Amino acid sequence: MRAAIVKSFGGPEAVEIVEVPVPEPGPGQVRVKVAAAALNPVDAGVRAGAFGDAGPVGLGWDLAGTVDAVGTGVTGPAVGDAVVGLVYGPVKPLGSHAEYVVLDADAVAAAPRSADSAHAATLPLNALAAAQAVDLLALEPGASVLVTGAAGGLGGYAVALARLAGHRVTAMASPADEDLVRSFGADDFLPRSATDDPAASFDGVVDAAVIGAPALAFVRDGGAYTGVIPGAQPGEVRGIRTGAIEVRPDGARLAELVRLADDGRLRLRVAATYPLARVRDAHARLDRGGLRGRLVLVP
Fold first, then answer.
1. In Å, what is the CA distance from 204 to each residue of 144, 167, 170?
2. Which domain range does residue 216 map to?
3. Are residues 276 and 219 in the same domain?
4. What is the CATH number of the domain that holds 273?
5. Whether residue 92 is found in the same domain as residue 162
6. Are residues 118 and 130 in the same domain?
7. For the chain, which terminal residue's Cβ has fewer other Cβ atoms within 10 angstroms, N or C?
8. How does pLDDT run across 129-167, given as a tens digit for each residue?
């Protein structure tokens, strides 16, 4: 089968399509024939060597596809089931940017009924990360929450999920994206230029834009900050709790997110699709930025 990997780190030219054996599922695992797999900023980080300096490394975290084999002890997903799932880990021999992938059975959920494979593939990584980030704030319903980078994949889901958790949500983004982020459920809007002169105080911040320590200026004394890069959160000041998520597979939570997507409460956004053979072109487009939705690879 074909898979996208990097053997030496660098720009889009470092990504290679190679032939590798079709993986076999072990106990508690399923093999999925990939129909679509999203390309995320973390893939660019892996490609550039941000997580280590030893290749080869497989690319891709989330996917939509069909279960085509199951290992021993699997009682949930069955052969023929349409699923979405998260292949965890920045350093792994094979990721979801491949024709087949093996992952733990408890890392998958039934695919959305309301979306095609390309749109479904944009859900697992970003929506799980957003859900876990909102959870980490640990705020009571009715709290005021600021989401930075609200027009992005993770930020857009964070706006919607924080609103569904009962919080009053302010979205920070470019002024050109105000209507977009309000459509996700934001109650209020703050232009990202406001980082130079904070004009509001919030109970918590989900920092999807990775502003870092300057974002703490938006948080009231004793509030909470959640970052999206493991271990990169700023230090605590003024009694503000600071933490960062390391997204983890969670099939049960993913199933809840699928239901929200099917109910129209989470919007699945695709900026463009590329065949797997053009994965370098997709990486080059990702590097140029300005996307409002995910790029998706189709084997």
1. 7, 10, 10
2. 126-244
3. no
4. 3.90.180.10
5. no
6. no
7. N
8. 999 999 999 999 999 999 999 999 999 999 999 999 999
pTM check: above 0.90? yes
Q: Give pLDDT, residue 194.
A: 74
Say if CB 211 and CB 235 are below 8 A apart: no
CATH number of the domain within which 180 lies: 3.40.50.720
